[in-house]
Structures are given as C-alpha cells and as structure tokens.
# Entry
Amino acid sequence: MFKRFISYYKPHMKLFALDMGASLLVSLLAILYPVVTRRMLNDLIPNQKYEWIIACGVGLLVLYAIRMYLNFFIQYQGHVMGVRMQAQMRSDLFRHLEKLPFSFYDEHETGKIMSRLTNDLTDISELAHHGPETLIISLTSVVISFAYLMTIHVGLSLIIFACVPFLVAISLFMRDRQRKAFQKSRKSMAEINGALQSSVSGIRVTKAFNNAEKEQENFEKGNAMFREASRDAYKAMGQFHSGTTFITDVFNVVVLIAGGLFMYNGQIDFADYSAFIVSINLFLNPINTLIRFMEQFQSGAAGFERFVEVMDTPTEQDADDAVDAGRLRGDIQLENVSYGYDEGTDVLHDMSLHIPAGATFALVGPSGGGKTTICHLIPRFYEVLTGRITIDGQDIRTYTRDSLRRNIGIVQQDIYLFNASIRDNILYGRLDATEEEVIEAAKRANIHDYIQTLENGYDTVIGERGVRLSGGQKQRLCIARVFLKNPPILILDEATSALDNTTEMLIQQSLDELCKGRTTLVVAHRLSTIKNADEIAVISDGRISEQGDHNALVAQGGIYAQLHRQQFREWEED
# Structure
C-alpha cells in the first residue's frame, strides 16, 4: 500500500523536491537562534562587543525573512502539490468506478461512494502534503538539535535522549487503537452521506407522504453512529496526546533538576545552562510535531485504505481474445441460461429462447419472474452463471463490452436524465452527432415541436433527473437519445408502464417508429403494447411458462389469457 501511495508523487517530483528542500532549510535555520544566544551569553555580552551584537541581530532578521519566504513556499506550493495528487486520485477513482459492474452499485449506496470521492481524498491530500514535510523538518531538527545539545553538555543531552524511548513506546502502543477508531469514524461519515443523498434525492416523495420526521429519524441514526465513532476516535486521540505530552513535560523537569545539579557541582556554567534551557525546545518541539502528525497520519491512512478498497474491486474485464462486434444483425439466443443475484438463489433456471434478427419479442408475466434480468444479461451488465447467450451465433463474451453495448439501445421505465440541456441529453446517445442529427432524432421521437416552444429551445436545462419535464416528455427525450444511437438491437423494459393511457398511446407511436428494422425485446405490463409482437413469452419463476403469438396464447387459456381477460375488464371499467 505504501508503494501505491508513493507512486502518486512521481508526476510532481520537481515540486516535491523543492518543497522538501525548503523544509530542510527551514529546519536548519531554526538552530541559529540558540547558537547566537549561546555566543552572546558566553562572549559578546561579557566582552561588550556591541557591534557584533547588532550584526548578529540584523543577520538573524535577514535569515528569518528568508525563512518566512520558505514557509510561504512550503504552505502554498506544498498544498498545490497535495491538491494535484488528490485530483489524480479522484480521477483514478472515478475512472475505476465507471468500469465497475452493476453488482458493485447494488451493494454500495451513492452517498457512501461520494464520501470516498470527497472526504477521504481530502484527508489523503493533507497527508500527502504535510507528511513528508513534517517528517523532514522534524527529524532533521531532532538530529541537529541533539547534536548541538551534545556540544553544550554531553551528560544532560544523554539524560534527555534516554526519555525518548518512553515517548516512542507510548506512541506505538496507542497508534493502532487510534487508526481503528478513525476508520470507524470515516465509515460512519459515509453512512451519513448515504442517508443524506437518499433523503435529498427522494425529497418530493418525502413531502408527498409527509414523512419528514421519518427521514429525520433515519438521518439521526447515522448521525448518532458518527457521534459514537467520533467519541471513540477522540478518546483514543486524547489518550495518545495526554500520554505523550506527559512524557515531554517530564523532559523539562529532568533538564531543570539535572541541570541544576550539574551547575551546583560546577560541571556546567550559567551561560551554557541558559543556552541549554533555550535550546531544549529545539529538541522537544519537533518531537511534539511528530506526535501531532500521528493524528493526521491515522486519518489520511484510513482514507487511503478506503480508497484502495474501491480501487482493488475487480472491474468488468473482457476476454483476452475478445473482438470488436462491429454492427450486429441482432439474432439473439439464450441457451440453457441460469442466473442469480445472490449465491444459491437463481432468478433464471435453465432458460432457452430465440429472438430472430429484426423480430419483436415480448416478455410478460408476474413481477420478479426474471424478465428484467434477461434484459440485463444481454448487454452483459451481469454475467450468466451457466449456459450462454449468443448474438449472430457468437457467444457475447467473445465481444468486447463496449462494442456489444454500442449495438444495444435501452429504454427503461426509470429514465435517468442529466441536469444539462436538452441537446446534451440527446447527444448522450452519440456524442459526435451533428446538430442536424440531433434535431432529426428529436423529430422522430415526436418531441421536436415541444422543444421549439421553449424559450431556450435545445439549450433548455431540464434540471436534475429531468424534473422540469413531464413523464411523457422524459420518455420521448430518452427515445430521441436511442434514435441518435441507432442500434440494431433494442430493449424496452417497461418503457411505458409509468405513463397514463393517453400518454402511453402517444409514446407508443414513437416506440413503433423506433422498433422498425431492429431486433426488439419488449418487457411489458400492458398487453395492448405487445399484442402485435412476433413472439411472446410468459416468464414465471425464472422459466418460460408459455410461448407463442398473441392469438395463440389467448386461445391456450393459460396465464397470458388470464392476464388478457383481467386487463380487458379494467379497460371496460375505464
């Protein structure tokens, strides 16, 4: 894991080297004040060398001005380097997220993923900047200050140095406890982000059902978890700081007593003793800095572990010999396919069906029977467990995923539109399309005339998830997107089930136009939309219960006929 963290420094090695060089100079300049102080006490003041006293003061001011600039460089450019590393990690994480399978998103809430992209990476950025800088300044200062203290009095210096192992022992003892506590705190913050994202996304439902108190209750559960986790984290941090601070306080007591005894016995004079007292902070301050750094290190390390956890999640992989599918004809065949989202629980059982190129094939049946699962397996959103799916006679696993999905257009019940312009949402079907092609796609989806009535036309921003559009307008925009993509295979998964009958009839005209010349797989609840399909399969409990065209299935008097009679009565009542 350490090597992976270090690898993010490589593109910024020049800036990193300058930052570390500046940090080294800052630590070297820090030793000048006690050196000059000792010289003044031992020589300049007793011998009344006033010109040298003034010269030393002016020299210190100049050097401190240089140190001010170096500190500015460290703070400014060091943070810039940290932010650049953070941005690279965020890009890598986002790119990785885009390649993860559907199953990952089935198990991880959006808010928790966002927490890893924001909070965790901010902590990592701070560690990336302050970590090496703190270590270089502090360790250099410790070494130089100890060497300088040895020149003043060896005995006192060795006594002080003997206290360091106690400080290190306490730090190591408490480090693991602090790391685990901060990890737990990070996870609880992700829980809060998950609850917040869910509540904000569903705010309209919350208001419609007047359930604000319920959402507050759900949020407070995560908030309480965060409070408890933070309490444990800060308890561990408090124990860490109080223990280490006690040891550093002991340093001063030891110096005071031991130095007084040495001075009483004539082993050190007043000037050196005073210089030692002044200089002892040069040794103690970087040690305290290292102690404080442990808190930041634990927080940043916990964030990087969570970053690595996602980065190590396997992505969708094509076979080594996978080929580009080109433009497929669309002859689809499922051969003894079984699949289950959870181990040991299959949704599809040894299913076989054939959808000829250019045909319209409909799937109907009870909810949970496996219809949508079939729609997800064809584009390889999920992988079949046993059996295989072929298109144009080739196992779809022999095609690259990109080329396979390029051949498939999907219109679903739950439409996702981006908070962007109408043009950008249509262009999502094919990003390199021309303006004329976008307009033509909108015309074929029967939404161009409506767009023309808007003040900003195709530049109209439609809001998050298309909130400024009606259900029918959203659906037409999605259809226009697929028209622009122009795939040979079309999947309509309950595409009109959320619409009223009148709107459905209007949308159906656009869908009928979209289906022409394409292999079409339709999942439908309303049988009126699929009665003209070339073939209809009734899916129940992961198996095909009945199959045939509309008239044949009605004549069989089975499940399909029962569904047909039920819906016919509903139409009569309407």
Summary: The first strand starts at residue 332 and ends at 339. The mean pLDDT is 82. The chain has 20 helices and ten strands.
